[in-house]
Amino acid sequence: MSSKDRILSRIRRAASGPDPEVPRDYLRVHAVRTPAERVDLLAAHLTDYRATVHRTDGDGLPELLARLLSRHESVLVPPGLPPYWLSAAGPARIHDRADSTPAALDRVGSVVTGCALAVAETGTIVLDGGPDQGRRRITLIPDHHVCVVRVPGQVVDSVPQALERLDPTRPLTWISGPSATSDIELDRVEGVHGPRVLDVVLLDAQ
User: Fold this and answer.
1) CB 196 within 8 A of CB 50
2) Which of 44, 67, 114, 187 gives 132 a disulfide partner, CB atoms 3.0 to 4.6 angstroms apart?
């Protein structure tokens, strides 16, 4: 029996047995917060991560998005984005299609999406490929991502609370600020693995 066969045999034995008991004695949340405090904490952490945070209600959303997108000639639009979010006078709308190539998507200036939820304690936005978010690649290729978070309903305190609300079979993307990395000299470089610019709109959906 080869080493590969032995490894696969152990994996099969482990997978066929009962699920092990995993202790979950960690804190599920680190404070008691009102919905408003939860949203404020999310905004503070997003700002720390160099995202730009905006607040508006449904009436002000089209004007705000038009302003954020004004420097771009085109915007990528998921199939289920609410029509009223984008004003008719904005940039040209590009719809993601199955035959859209990475090169074609790279020519689009911006993308606007919703989200599945956001985590206040970590300043993280989670996408799950829902109709108002589209496929994962449309949020990774354009240089500018505008993400709308409906508050307070889409904001949870902690990661354990988020996991309870998310479907693990869906394509989950966890975003904490614009895409960035550092080299060996700790020089920060943005836009390596996704958008260099992240605008987060906290939409009052009460």
Assistant:
1) no
2) 114
- C-beta atoms surrounding 91 within 10 Å: 17
Number of domains in the chain: 1
List CB contacts of 139: < 8 A, sequence separation 6 or more.
111, 113, 127, 133, 145, 173, 175, 194, 195
12/5 Cα distance (integer angstroms): 10
Model pLDDT, residue 205: 87
pLDDT at 191 over 80: no
Strand 144-151 and strand 197-204: pairing? parallel
> 99-135, pLDDT tens digit by residue?
888 899 999 999 999 999 999 999 999 999 999 999 9
Q: Residue 170 domain-assigned?
A: yes
Residue 139 in contact with residue 125, Cβ under 8 Å? Answer: no
Q: What is the DSSP letter of 109?
A: -
As a whole number of angstroms, the distance between CA 145 and CA 172 comes to 16
pLDDT value of position 183 = 67
How many helices (DSSP H) and strands (DSSP E) are in the chain?
A: 5, 12
